[in-house]
Amino acid sequence: MPSALPEGDPAPADGRLPAEVAASVGRRPLGIYLHVPFCTTRCGYCDFNTYTAPELGPDPGASRVGYIDRAITELDLAVRVLGADAPPVSTVFVGGGTPTLLPPADLGRFLAAVEDRFGLAHDAEVTTESNPDSIDAAGLAVLREAGFTRVSFGMQSAAPHVLATLDRAHTPGRAQEAVREAWAAGFEHVSLDLIYGTPGESPADWSQSLDAALAAGPDHVSAYALIVEEGTRLATRVRRGELPMPDDDLLADAYVAADERLSGAGLDAYEVSNWARDDAARCRHNLAYWRGDDWWGVGPGAHSHVAGLRWWNVKHPAAYAARLAAGASPAAGRELLDADSRRVERVLLEVRLAEGLPVDALTATERRRLPDLAARRLVTDAYAGPAGRVVLTRAGRLLADGVVRDLLD
Ligand SMILES: C[S@@+](CC[C@H](N)C(=O)[O-])C[C@H]1O[C@@H](n2cnc3c(N)ncnc32)[C@H](O)[C@@H]1O
Ligand code: SF4
């Protein structure tokens, strides 16, 4: 089951922004996220807001057919709410679920609607996630032709028994083949997602996955520690004792192995869990999340952020369709962050970036804790000096959440 939404305040039916938020539209770059809430089957570890066809049932409002038209209706609402000061869109990211379960032409139609309503910056980054089994060379060519510049494939592992524990149905080698097809189609950037720490995954299995990912030649890799999310099949199996909980020491070893292997192959960590060949290969859409820019999230359960106002849409595709059909905003709730919550959020996110967090984002008390963190080799000495920055060492990246806990008041 997908996890629950936050509570927050009620959101107005017309989606209107508070005056002080509306007044600052256009001061930061704007991104558009499209959530595609459909999957063929649900992987046992995943609690994303996504639904299989049997879960959705026969309700036409919840179907894949017509989904992009509903998403474009929300885009029209975004144009009205953001008003004339909205800048051309810098980044578009289509995620899921499995975006490539929709016909590639539908994703192209959404992108054309973004361009028509907002305009696209001349160097806009346009990404879609893809499950490699749900796309082929012809589909990738259509996406590229439609203006997508970047594709991110969910590979997870190269070890068949690990994929089986994750409930992932993959044709062996398909992710690597999809990377080659994406380059051949002319994509500017190609990424692979990996997961480590799956119960039963040995260091040799993880090493094999890293080798296979690198051999495919992506210019970006994301590697995440497996999270056992409440309510998933994986969590049930762990609770029953059928599978062990991922072991913290093994997770740390796997992270170090990933960082050594990926950086040895020329992909450097620019965020704790993300490695890129060079600056151009970094995911600008995700960087905008981490830097607190503005973005509008279209689709069921999608989150948006403009100038410290966060809101989130109703989760179920049928409820989402019903709101839009009634001419109302699909937002379920929202919250306006105060200055202190925004600062804490900034510390949490920016400290994870390779460039680090400017020291002047910290209070005087917090700054006094930096020498101790440096002595424990969790942050580098880049914090000292006039343009000081808090930059995590590799050991610090492994314990990023703990470093933030130790740092904050
Ligand atoms: C929502 S998926 C979208 C891509 C596509 N649906 C797929 O799975 O190939 C995005 C990524 O989130 C990561 N992910 C999802 N659930 C996770 C979990 N419980 N622990 C760690 N990573 C997870 C996976 O690496 C996955 O590729
Ligand atoms: S394909 Fe991706 S989004 Fe769908 S259930 Fe699996 S991990 Fe989750």
Distinctive features:
single chain, 409 residues, alpha/beta, nine-stranded mixed sheet, three-stranded antiparallel sheet, 17 helices, 38% helix, globular, binds S-adenosylmethionine, binds iron/sulfur cluster
Q: What does this entry look like structurally?
A:
The chain is of the alpha/beta class. Helix content is 38%, strand content 19%. It contains 17 helices and 14 strands. It has helices spanning 19-22, 53-56, 67-82, 104-118, 137-146, 160-165, 174-184, 203-216, 233-239, 248-264, 284-290, 317-325, 339-350, 364-367, 370-375, 394-398, 400-407; strands spanning 30-36, 89-96, 120-130, 150-156, 189-196, 220-225, 268-271, 274-276, 294-298, 303-306, 309-313, 331-336, 357-358, 389-390. A 9-stranded mixed beta sheet has the order 7-8-6-5-4-3-2-1-9, with helices on both faces. A 3-stranded antiparallel beta sheet has the order 10-11-12, with no helix packed on it. The chain has a two-stranded antiparallel ribbon with strand order 13-14. Strand 10 and strand 11 form a beta hairpin. The protein starts with 18 loop residues before the first helix and ends with a helix. The site of S-adenosylmethionine has 16 residues, from strand 2, strand 4 and strand 5. S-adenosylmethionine is lined by residues 45-46, 48, 95-96, 98, 129, 131, 154, 156, 193, 195, 224, 226-227, 229.
